[in-house]
Specification:
single chain; 66 residues; three-stranded antiparallel sheet; 3 strands; globular; binds zinc ion; DUF1059; DUF1059 domain-containing protein
Length: 66
């Protein structure tokens, strides 16, 4: 049964994409995580634009916490 919803927590560790970065987040959806990661990428890594490639590498490293 397809299960869509926000009851799973998602987690992302920046260090999975940017070696050495200790930042990590949890949120209830990929979109929320991407907002947090995008703000961090800009503030901490000088990334001005969240490109589709960046979104792709982030989403591939998002883990679902059950
Ligand atoms: Zn980072």
């Amino acid at each position: 049964m397809a299960h869509e919803g926000d009851e799973f927590m998602k987690a992302f560790a920046c260090g999975d994409v940017v070696p050495g970065c200790a930042a990590s987040w949890t949120a209830t959806s990929d979109d929320d995580l991407l907002v947090l990661v995008g703000a961090h990428a800009h503030a901490a890594h000088g990334i001005e634009e969240v490109t589709p490639e960046l979104v792709d590498s982030v989403t591939r490293h998002i883990v679902a916490l059950s």
